Each structure stands twice: as C-alpha cells, then as structure tokens.
C-alpha cells in the first residue's frame, strides 16, 4: 500500500476533489470545481465550444478517439493511441503508472441500451457459432428440467416440492404423447355396422361401459409410462449430468433419492398394470408390461452400445397405439375369440398394426433431427447415436421413414379404418415431413434444416391422429342416421331378403334329410 503524502492531507477539500476528477474532466470544469487558479502555460485539452458527439444518442457511432465511447471500451489498445493529454498535474503519478484514458472512459460511459446489448450479443453468438461450425442453438429445457427448477426453488419441507420432483421423474411431455397415441387408436377403432343399424339388437357394450374402459386405459397407460421413464432416469444419472438437456433432472440434482425413485417406479408399474388388467384385457396388459421392460432394460443400456437403440426405441413408441386398438377390440370380442392370437394376428387387428407403424416410422425423422441438434453432447456423454456416429446415415434413415408415411396412411383407408377424406390432411402432413426430411438429407442438417425437420414432425403427428379421428369409418354414417332416426329402407329390404334366403335354405336341407330317412322308416314299419 502506498502511503499518502502529508501535502495531500493538508490540501483543501475542493482541491482534493479536483485532483481526483482531473483525468476525466475538461480543464474548464476542473477550473470551476477547483478554488486554485489555473497554472499558466498549460494548454486546454478540448477545443472551444461543444462538439456534436456530446449530443449523440448512440455512443456506438462516436469516433474511435472519443472519450467514453462504446467503441473505445471494446478496443482499448487501438483507441488509446488517439488520446494525448498535453498537461498533467504535478501531484499525479507518471503517465506509465496512471490509469489509461480508455479505462476511465469505459467506467464513465453511460449504460448500454438494452436493445443495443441484445443485438450485440446475438451478433457475437452468431459469429461464434459460425466459427465453430455449429450454427444451431441449444434446444430449450424439457418439462422434467423445468419442473426440477420449480421444485428446487420451493422450501425443503414443502409438499409441492416433492410432488413437482416426482412429477419430473415421469417426463410429462413424453408420457402425454404416448397417452395421446394410445387413446387416439382406441377412438379410431371402427364402429360395428350392426351398431349403426339397430343398437338394441347388438351385444356391444353401452356408452357408460366404453367410457369406463377408456378411463382405465388412459390411467393405466399413463402410470406405466411413469414407471418406465423413472427407471430410465435411475439407470443413467451420471450420464445425464454431462448433457445440458438432462443435467437438471431430479436425480441428478438430488431432489429425489434413488430409493424413493425405485419405490415410485414399482408403485406406478403395479398400479398401472392392475388398472389395465381390470379395465381392458390381458393382452393389453401384457403389451404394456413388455413396453416397460423394453424401454427400461433394453433401450436404456443399448444407447451406450450400438446405434440399433433407435430402432428399439421406435418399437417402444409403436406399441401404445396397438394397445389402444386391442383395448377397443376386446369390448366386441366374443367368447373363444378373445385370446391373444385373435387379438394380435386376426384380420381385425390390421388397423392397430398400421397405427403402430405410423408411430414406428415417425420416431426416426423426429429423433434423428433432435439428436443432430445436440450430437456433440451425446458424443461427450458416450451415447452411440447415428447423429455423430454416422451423420450421413442419420439423414438417409430420416428421409426413408418419412417416405414410408405415405403407404401406411393409404393402408388405413384401404382397410376401412378411416374414410377417403383422411387422404387430404395426411397427404399434406406427410408431404411437409418429406420435404423437410429431404432438405435435412441434402444439407446434412446444416442451414437450420434439422430444426425444420424437428418442428415438421411435431406438427405432422397430431394432424394424422386428429384427421383419423375426424374421418373415422362409419362415424358420419352414425351421425346421419341419428339425425334422421332410422336406417335406409334399402338396408331393411336387403336384411329381409337375406333372412328369407337363409330360412329357405334351412327348409330345403330339412326336406332333403327327411326324404333320405323316409325309406328306412318305411322298411322298419313294414317289418
């Protein structure tokens, strides 16, 4: 520490203030503040009058030598050459030890305007990304990370903190997507023709029973998803900590213990599977249990071994629509035709397989585009994803399965799952997806094509599901008949003639059998 000279301590307060502000103030202002007279022979630092830069609203465009300009604070080395103080107080330290005018100007400069600062940071970020060869920005936080941040901000003893932390274990957005695909397939199951003609003559369940089955299916599917996602987080917290997308998950941040997560996974699995078994059928329950096993114990460890994990994950995504279809088919199945073979491999199960095929094919353009955006983080965490193992194949697979959407959508119409009106929205959505997948393949994910494909996949799937529900086969026929109150007369006549033909056939067979037995009976009577 440099001791102060006694002469400085004995100086008046005004003179001491002037000496402190002397490097930053012009001689006129220093003379106004100081009670001492100006020394003769010392030239003024500033020209007479005011300069137009004093009134400049944007200090960024001031000259590079202007004291306090924004440019001088960014480039101190070049700007310092433009300053040349002609006078120096005897009490000031030497020029080599004094603060540079640039530093003083940066401290005295007014605060940068917010919109100027945002523009400057954005330009600097673009320059940095372009120089690194990765122009894509990081994707926003997922729902689990957002819930973890919300939970950590609450008091430790708060019940909401625990609920938010456990809800973050379920990956809410992913669970909701799976629930949407399952219930959409349930609602897309064809309406029986007998039900549209005369509901009183059919053994189909009533509306209340169908609604109850729907509730069991939705609750059981969601709880099963919660269990699978929790087990997935339990097996890879140390790898999640290496990625910005997953480092805020509750197990990484210690918001939930591993023991608590294990009990939560077991409880949700048991409850969900029980609801499916009681409310739907054993085949749907078995598919849900298989999905938990595939996702938690096959897909999760396979991510660090081979790129085939993407295909396993696609199978996991394709099973929920099949679950919804079989849950609806179980309500109309008769005794003897309700086993797993008839449910899965009969002619009536083709619609469920087609809906599952849509979700299977959709996984590739969606996930491949997403993984391309964070391919460096996947590589650093040790996950074997095509986005960095084989980027060219990653783009080809995305385009290939995007094209597969067209025949699958046509198959839904061909097998009378949906009406012909479904071809209009499906062609639009599939065409959009293929266009973005082609650009993604053409540019290998550069120029924002990965983000474009990702958002196209986000919108394409709801368009297909909602379009299928709106154009469901037989839906508008039932509405038409409910408005007019009775079926067409041609249908009644057709059923009437069909019944007469069956009765005539039975009578003719009875007469033939009686004629065959009559000779025998005659001989017996004569005997």
Please describe what this structure looks like.
- The protein has 527 residues and is mostly helical.
- Among the domains are: 163-345, Tetracycline Repressor, domain 2, CATH 1.10.357; 362-484, no CATH class.
- It has 27 helices and no strands.
- The relative contact order is 0.07.
- Residues 513-527 have a biased composition (Low complexity).
- Keywords: Heme biosynthesis, Membrane, Mitochondrion, Transferase, Transit peptide, Transmembrane, Transmembrane helix.
- Its cofactor is Mg(2+).
Quick rundown:
It is found in: Mitochondrion membrane. With 527 residues, the chain is an all-alpha fold.
Low-confidence stretches: 29-50, 52-109, 129-137, 193-209, 489-497, 514-527
Biggest beta sheet attributes:
none
- Gap between N and C termini, in Å? 145 Å
Helical residue percent band? 55-70%
- Per DSSP, the total helix count is 27
Instruction: Give the helices and strands as they follow along the chain.
Output: HHHHHHHHHHHHHHHHHHHHHHHHHHH
**Rg of Cα set:** 39 Å
Structural class of the secondary structure composition?
mainly alpha
CATH topology of the domain at 163-345: Tetracycline Repressor, domain 2
How much is the average pLDDT? 76
Number of strands: 0
What would the principal axes of the Cα set say about the shape?
A: globular
CATH architecture of the domain at 163-345: Orthogonal Bundle
Percentage beta strand: under 5%
Q: For the record, what CATH class of the domain at 163-345 applies?
A: Mainly Alpha
Give the CATH superfamily of the domain at 163-345: UbiA prenyltransferase
Transmembrane segments: 174-192, 212-235, 256-278, 284-302, 309-330, 350-374, 395-415, 453-471
Membrane topology: Multi-pass membrane protein
Keywords: Heme biosynthesis, Membrane, Mitochondrion, Transferase, Transit peptide, Transmembrane, Transmembrane helix
Biased composition (Low complexity): 513-527
């Amino acid at each position: 520490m440099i001791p102060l000279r006694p002469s400085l301590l004995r100086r008046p307060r005004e003179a001491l203030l002037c000496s402190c502000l002397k490097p930053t103030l012009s001689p006129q202002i220093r003379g106004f503040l100081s009670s001492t007279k100006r020394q003769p022979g010392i030239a003024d630092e500033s020209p007479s009058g005011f300069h137009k830069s004093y009134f400049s609203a944007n200090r960024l465009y001031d000259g590079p030598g202007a004291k306090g300009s924004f440019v001088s604070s960014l480039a101190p080395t070049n700007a310092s050459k433009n300053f040349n103080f002609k006078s120096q107080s005897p009490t000031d330290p030497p020029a080599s030890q004094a603060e540079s005018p640039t530093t003083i100007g940066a401290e005295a400069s007014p605060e940068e305007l917010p919109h100027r600062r945002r523009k400057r940071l954005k330009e600097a970020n673009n320059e940095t990304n372009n120089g690194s060869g990765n122009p894509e920005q990081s994707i926003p936080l997922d729902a689990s990370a957002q819930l973890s941040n919300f939970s950590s901000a609450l008091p430790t003893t708060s019940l909401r903190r625990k609920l938010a932390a456990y809800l973050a274990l379920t990956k809410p957005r992913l669970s909701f997507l799976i629930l949407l695909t399952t219930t959409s397939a349930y609602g897309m199951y064809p309406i029986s023709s007998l039900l549209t003609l005369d509901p009183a003559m059919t053994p189909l369940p009533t509306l209340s029973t169908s609604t109850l089955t729907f509730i069991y299916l939705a609750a059981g599917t969601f709880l099963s998803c919660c269990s699978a996602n929790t087990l997935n987080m339990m097996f890879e917290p140390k790898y999640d900590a290496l990625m910005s997308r997953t480092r805020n998950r509750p197990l990484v941040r210690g918001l939930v213990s591993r023991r608590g997560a294990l009990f939560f996974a077991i409880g949700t699995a048991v409850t969900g599977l029980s609801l499916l078994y009681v409310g739907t059928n054993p085949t749907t329950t078995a598919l849900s249990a298989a999905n938990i096993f595939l996702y938690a114990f096959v897909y999760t460890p396979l991510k660090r071994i081979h790129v085939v994990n993407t295909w396993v994950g696609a199978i996991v995504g394709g099973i929920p629509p099949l679950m919804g279809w079989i849950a609806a088919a179980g309500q109309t199945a008769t005794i003897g035709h309700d086993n797993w073979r008839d449910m899965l491999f009969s002619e009536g199960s083709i619609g469920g397989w087609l809906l599952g095929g849509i979700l299977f094919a959709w996984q590739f353009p969606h996930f491949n585009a997403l993984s391309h955006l964070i391919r460096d983080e996947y590589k650093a965490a040790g996950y074997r994803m095509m986005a960095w193992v084989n980027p060219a194949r990653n783009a080809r697979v995305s385009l290939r399965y995007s094209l597969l959407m067209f025949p699958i959508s046509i198959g839904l119409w061909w097998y009378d799952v949906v009406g012909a009106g479904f071809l209009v929205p499906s062609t639009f959505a599939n065409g959009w997806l293929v266009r973005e997948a082609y650009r993604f393949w053409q540019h290998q994910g550069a120029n924002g094509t990965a983000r474009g494909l990702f958002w196209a996949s986000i919108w394409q799937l709801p368009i297909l599901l909602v379009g299928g529900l709106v154009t469901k086969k037989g839906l508008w026929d039932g509405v038409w008949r409910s408005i007019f109150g009775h079926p067409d007369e041609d249908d009644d006549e057709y059923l009437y003639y069909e019944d007469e033909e069956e009765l005539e056939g039975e009578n003719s067979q009875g007469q033939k059998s009686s004629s065959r037995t009559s000779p025998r009976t005659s001989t017996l009577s004569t005997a």
